[in-house]
Specification:
The chain has 18 helices and six strands. The chain is an alpha+beta fold. Strand 5 and strand 6 form a beta hairpin. The relative contact order is 0.06.
Length: about 450
């Protein structure tokens, strides 16, 4: 009887301790790591110290690189421009910082590395931004969370990320602590479960691997066993759905072009996405099915073949023009290029070559007003328009569109494109050319008006 009472009392004590531990997981964790400070205070102090960390890097000429949803407009002679919000993120280098703001220098793509990640060159075009302009996702991209960062610092960062509603990012940071600190492991697990509204599992948490396509890295987060099984099922469905999307993106690939269903994605991107698919879903039952894996390989082989055909045909197109002053040869080349484009219509570089071929046949006047063959200019315009849908702030193509409309004596549309170039480039790049073409256009319009009197 006494043994039963002792066991019962031990059970009550254990249950009481567990209840105490889970009463407020944040309090339990921060009592251990931050001397009982409130979660909100821990989070805000970490964020308030961010400018100091950035300054410590820049003072040593170690300039953090990050992504930001901005573009630089109207840079002056010193490179300082105005920040304009962009749906697409761009790469920047932070070179200076104070408590209120930081300077972000634009970086431009110059190719890819061995695993397909973009590489960048530095520029001297920059903007100043407030710290609130730096999204949490890209702070995490830049801030060190490896072995050299203290557990308490990572926990503080995790608390801040939870406050920013970036739960998976917070989980990723806290997983680092969970996996290397046995003493903090149960506290971190309880904290994550509390934030995710999961029941704390008696047998502990499980690691879930996530392939981060953007950064080409395997990420780990902590999940409960039930959540793990749920994600396994979701992964199988996601693999099946993504497989179908890739098939549609590839389009028809059997027979000679033009084919009925053309690609809806650039072929090299389809190839890259398939390789990412194989990494991300490599452990799935879906991809272990040889029927599916063989189909993917068939698509990859077809892309390789089509890309080779494009290069061969581009060489043939070049041979069609032996005299740049011969309009018949220029037109024949442009028509031939249209056929090549049907193989890979989402390749904007290839499309620009088609547009330029029609533009060359149209032959706008050097001063911009008028052209030899309006039909060529009209055929170039839809191609330039499509390119600008993808690259809306590319001043080279904006300038080309302006020149097309000026050649057709459509001053209203031409001016709109030229003014956009000036807005983006200011006194640099294509800005001075756009201003000169506007002057020529205005003079031509004035001359025509005088003749009509």
């Amino acid at each position: 009887m006494r043994m039963f009472q002792t066991a019962l009392m031990a059970g009550i004590i254990a249950t009481s301790f567990a209840g105490s531990l889970l009463a407020d997981p944040a309090e339990d964790l921060f009592a251990k790591t931050h001397e009982g400070a409130k979660e909100s205070k821990v989070a805000s102090e970490w964020y308030d110290a961010l400018p100091e960390w950035v300054s410590s890097q820049t003072s040593k000429n170690q300039f953090p690189e990050t992504h930001l949803p901005y573009i630089v407009e109207k840079p002056n002679d010193d490179g300082l421009g105005k920040a304009k919000y962009s749906k697409d993120v761009n790469k920047f280098q932070i070179r200076d910082a104070n408590k209120r703001e930081f300077s972000a220098y634009m970086m431009v793509r110059n190719g890819v590395d061995a695993v397909g990640r973009p590489t960048y060159d530095q520029t001297n075009t920059f903007i100043w931004l407030s710290w609130k302009s730096w999204p949490a996702k890209y702070i995490l991209e830049t801030y060190p969370i490896g072995a050299g960062t203290k557990d308490a610092e990572l926990i503080a960062m995790g608390a801040w990320l939870y406050g920013e509603k970036e739960n998976e990012l917070a989980n990723r940071v806290l997983t680092q602590v969970h996996e290397r600190n046995d003493e903090l492991k149960p506290l971190v697990a309880a904290y994550i479960c509390d934030k995710e509204k999961w029941d704390l599992p008696a047998d502990g948490m499980k690691l879930w691997n996530v392939w981060d396509i953007e950064y080409q890295k395997e990420r780990q987060i902590l999940v409960t066993p039930d959540e793990y099984e749920k994600r396994l099922k979701e992964r199988e469905k996601a693999a099946s759905d993504r497989f179908k999307e890739l098939l549609r993106a590839r389009g028809d690939y059997k027979g000679r072009p033009p084919r009925r269903n053309q690609p809806t994605m650039q072929l090299v991107l389809v190839e890259w996405e398939i390789k990412q698919f194989k990494i991300k879903f490599g452990s799935s039952d879906f991809l272990k099915d040889t029927k599916n894996s063989d189909k993917l390989q068939e698509i990859l082989d077809s892309i390789k073949d089509d890309l080779a055909v494009i290069q061969d045909n581009l060489e043939e197109a070049r041979k069609k023009v032996t005299d740049n002053g011969n309009p018949n040869q220029l037109k024949e080349k442009a028509e031939y290029m249209e056929g090549i484009l049907t193989i890979d219509p989402e390749d904007m570089n290839l499309r620009s070559q088609v547009a330029n071929a029609w533009y060359a046949w149209g032959n706008p006047a050097p001063h911009g007003n008028g052209c030899d063959r309006a039909e060529g200019i009209k055929k170039a315009i839809p191609h330039y328009e499509r390119i600008l849908e993808v690259f809306p702030n590319n001043t080279s193509f904006l300038l080309a569109m302006g020149r097309c409309y000026q050649a057709l004596e459509d001053s209203k549309h031409a001016r709109g494109y030229y003014e956009k170039v000036i807005e983006l480039d200011g006194t640099k790049g294509s800005g001075p050319t756009a201003k000169a073409l506007i002057r020529n256009m205005d003079q031509n319009d004035a001359n025509r008006a005088n003749k009509g009197k």
